[in-house]
Amino acid sequence: QGRVRMPSPANDDEWVDVSKGEDESTAYYTYIDDRTHLSPVYAAGDLRYVLRVPKGAIVNEAKRVAKALHGCNACIHRAGIYVRDLGPSGPVFLHNLTCGIAAPCAEVTKLRELAEDLAEQACQSCQQHELVVVTDATYAPVREGKCAATGEEYGHWTVHPAACSTSEAATRYSKLARYYGQMDVRLAKLTVPEALASVNIMLEEQPHLERPEHYAACLRWVKTLQRHAVEQCTTGSGAFELMSLADKAKLRVLAILHGRVEGATHLDFHQSDNIVDFLTLPSRDALRAEMDSRSDPRFYMVSQLNRKLASAGVTSRHLIGLTWDGKFTDDLDIHVKTPSGNKIYYGNKSADGCTLDFDANVTQGEANPCENVSCKPGTFEVSVDNYTRRTRGAVPFQVVCRQEGMPDVVYDGTWPANRAKGRLLLVCRHTFTEAREEPGGLAMSAGAAGRAKALAGEWSAKIGEPTAVVATTDDLAGACGATVYRCGRATEPAQVGRVFMSMAASTSNKTAPAADPVRRKKAFLSESVKRHPTTVSELVAHVQAHPATQLAVRARDHAPGYMVSLATKCAGVRKTDLPAPCHFHDKHALPVKPVRATVGNARLDRSWLPCMSPNGYVRVSAVVDVAGSCPFLALEGAALPTCGEAFPLASGFYPTDLSADYHAHRERWAFYHSQLKPRVPADAKEGAVTLVGAFLTGDKAIVYMDGVQLTLKT
Fold first, then answer.
1. Residue 636 — left, alpha, or beta (φ > 0 → left; ψ -120 to 50 → alpha)?
2. CB-CB contact of 353 with 301 (8 Å)
3. What pLDDT sits at residue 12?
4. pLDDT at position 445, please?
5. Cα separation of 306 and 326, whole Å?
6. Residue whose C-alpha is closest to residue 84's, from 131, 17, 29
7. Which one of 102, 104, 316, 681 is least enclosed by Cβ atoms within 10 Å?
8. Average pLDDT over residues 512-536
């Protein structure tokens, strides 16, 4: 007779014999011992697993069927669990029934049907399944327990998996199992087609970074995931959000099995938070700048604070932040004393118009802990306390004092290993101010004298007394060989209307409910790069097509220059009627004609830009494209310097510009270059732009188009 395990009411561990007919028992044992048709299980790398669907009414039905068969508690328990397990071919429980093996009884057939019904329901519900790693010990053995009277082993149904995980893969996954499901949002962002293209741009720019190895491992991990999403997942075309439940599970596992790990921490997953931020940067220039900034050891924790400020929507012009490494799970707290003596901390979050915006590590450690207090102008005293000690040793931290328009002031500090809670550590006293702008003898040789006298008559008759006036955009209207493109304005009424309606549409998009729950708010890096010009010629074409484009430059990136309209008594003295370009290659020498692929030591400053913003940016009013010369940017509010030893002004009387008939006057013409200072036009028409700004002479030019930094080839 066959024997099965059944606990007695008095003791669940006691074995009780349940006798069945010999034929039925033999068929049952033959069936559960069958290993010719193993159950397929999912595979990802060296890990083998099944997906266990949530419990439901069918599970209870399966238990009732199992109990009706022979009342074995072990089989009832197994049926209630194994009926929920899915593999790539469907339920793994009683899989051999699908391979031509006959069921020993109607109850076994019914259990298989229930498993298939449960699998179908689970797929329709789209509920996340539990991942169960398949090892040698996942499924209980067929033979378990012995009859006390006869010593015969009892038999129970089980699952015979086709393969098991390697011990290394199973051990790694067990340490990192908490990441299963936790990575979903990141996987969704990293696997859309635009993200693939954006990561390729990051890889292209990586060799040009100050610390190219900083992101190397993380980018390899991201690229590996993207490749697996396309090659190993059969649904979704590589996009995680569009994948089947099974493919989503597979990509989660692959993400966990690959990449750098330290203990139970997946390093690449945490660092990829930066990669996700980089996906929506507006240009390659912005990408390089942000990657370099975040990888700088001096400012790594500062960038951590920046991300938290952005996510919390903090817009204060004055702030004091506290940040420390996430490996220290201690609950550091910032304490800020206001100018009136009130203290702001976790117990008093607001005083004197200053506010504690967010706290960190209150109940447990965070990946990127930081705190912030929004302040006002005045002198503040900043201290730090370690309210809850969770680690051993000293805890380094940084206090960041930030005022809009000024560089961050960073104070490094360390909470000592033996310092007691409540003994506040004074870090600094810092003063914030209202942001405001800062106030920004001659001789001639005898030979030359003789020539001048001989030519004086012709000079007076044809050249006269030349004048030099700083040119405006009106001087170039209709001129052959020069084109002016105005920036930052809608020049036609229809354009004004389009700008207004685009603002209305933008507002509507912000307030209307999203029809698509995964609709992106920001363009991907790859999309932005496609739209951006890469050369100055493309920039000019873009401004021509989009007059409302806002252009700006940073003063320190460009050398000053201007254009001068020269007038003589008769026409034809110069080879061209276009204004003369004056470019400062050397800030202590006279300006010269701009020459391509040259970069000198002169840079724009407040003597040229009295209204320059505190951060050094200035708008471009117009782009001037002159044939045979370098492109010119007319800058808003720019003016010629009025004093100082630097930037000696000249008027553009270049001897090489004289027509052949006037070559004899080269010496006198060049004399005017240094001695006649250009004057500001007194009768410029309203709306005309004075051509004072910068020539683009280098191999590359840095400009900001609609707030996005671009490095253009000239």
1. beta
2. no
3. 45
4. 63
5. 15
6. 131
7. 102
8. 69
The dihedrals phi and psi of 178, each to the nearest 5 degrees, come to: -65, -20
Residue with tokens 């002169």: 602
Which residues, other chains included, contact 645 with Cβ-Cβ below 8 Å and sequence gap of 6+? Answer: 588
User: How far is residue 135 from each of residues 49, 158, 519, 598, measured CA to CA in Å?
Assistant: 8, 14, 41, 68
On the question of pLDDT at 49 being above 50, the answer is yes
| List of residues 6+ apart from 440 with CB closer than 8 A | 605, 606, 607, 609, 610, 612
Which pLDDT does position 698 carry in this prediction?
86
The position carrying tokens 């000198």 is 600
CB 37 within 8 A of CB 163: no
> 1: pLDDT confidence band, cut at 50, 70 and 90?
very low
Task: Tell me, letter by letter, the H, E, C secondary structure of 407-453.
Answer: CCEEEEEEECCCCCCCCCEEEEEEEECCCCCCCCCCCCCHHHHHHHH
pTM assigned to the model: 0.58
Beta-carbon-side half-sphere exposure of residue 460 (alpha carbons within 13 Å): 6
The three-class DSSP label of residue 683 is: coil
421's CB contacts (< 8 A; 6+ apart) are 385, 386, 387, 388, 389
Q: Which pair of structure tokens corresponds to residue 160?
A: 């015979």
Question: Closest Cα partner for 634 from 699, 535, 563?
Answer: 563
Between the two ends of the chain, the Cα-to-Cα distance in Å is 93
Residues 6+ apart with CB under 8 A from 346: 333, 356, 359, 362, 387
Lowest mean pLDDT among 23-37, 480-494, 498-512, 641-655: 498-512
* Pairwise pLDDT comparison (557 vs 445), residue with the higher score: 557
Asked whether residue 235 carries a pLDDT value surpassing 70, the answer given is yes
Q: What is the DSSP string of 36-93?
A: SSPBP-EEETTEEEEEEPPP-HHHHHHHHHHHHHH--HHHHHHHHHHTTEEETTEE-T
Q: Determine the Cα–Cα distance for residues 549 and 488; give it in Å rounded to an integer.
A: 5
pLDDT, residue 627, reads 78
Question: Could you tell me the two tokens for 408?
Answer: 């961050």
| Helix segments in 73-155, DSSP class H | 73-82, 106-125
Tell me what pLDDT residue 450 has: 78
Which residue bears the tokens 């609950």? 331
8 A C-beta contact, residue 262 and residue 270 = no
**Token reading at 610:** 């009295």
